[in-house]
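User: Sequence recovery, please. Input:
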């Protein structure tokens, strides 16, 4: 609870920022994925799109969704792909840890790395210093692939007035969509855990 309190304090003490990269880029990527799934549905796969709010205050929206609609998800047949700030000028990363204790499963990391290789994308594994909504899903027992993009080791323009559309690197957003597409194709053909 200390981490959530610190994040809440940071959010309350910061000026409101535009939020183009954190996290309009994640929303844009998910909307594009929805469009692609409508054109080319995955057989025997149910896709649920979730746009929670309140990540900076302990993933309040994600936790509320998990308590209500997400409570019946089977961890053996569910994969959460979390897209958070995927428009930094650097490169895509997959989280191997979020916050101080949020280790992610090596099988899920391997899935992301294999998908990146198949899609011809560079993907690095890294620890994210703060927990994202993916950490809330992992705490609920669900497998998670948490993607972000980093520029010099940090999310570009994070919580700054410069977090505007002209400072988004749209190619990394497109890469996040391609990578998520490949992850879902691999997940669709996986064996039950």
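Assistant: Recovered sequence (193 residues):
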């Amino acid at each position: 609870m200390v981490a959530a309190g610190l994040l809440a304090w940071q959010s309350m003490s910061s000026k409101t920022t535009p939020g183009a990269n954190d996290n309009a880029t994640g929303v844009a990527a998910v909307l594009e994925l929805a469009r692609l799934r409508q054109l080319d549905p995955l057989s025997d796969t149910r896709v649920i799109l979730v746009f929670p709010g309140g990540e900076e205050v302990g993933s309040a929206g994600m936790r509320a969704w998990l308590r209500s609609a997400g409570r019946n998800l089977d961890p053996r047949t569910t994969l959460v792909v979390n897209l958070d700030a995927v428009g930094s000028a650097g490169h895509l990363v997959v989280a191997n840890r979020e916050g101080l204790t949020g280790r992610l499963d090596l099988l899920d990391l391997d899935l992301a790395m294999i998908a990146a290789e198949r899609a011809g994308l560079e993907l690095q594994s890294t620890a994210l210093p703060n927990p994202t909504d993916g950490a809330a899903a992992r705490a609920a027992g669900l497998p998670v692939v948490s993607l972000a993009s980093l520029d010099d080791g940090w999310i570009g323009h994070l919580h700054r007035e410069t977090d505007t559309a002209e400072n988004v690197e749209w190619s990394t957003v497109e890469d996040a969509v391609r990578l998520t597409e490949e992850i879902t194709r691999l997940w669709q053909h996986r064996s039950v855990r």
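The chain has one domain: 16-52+72-188.
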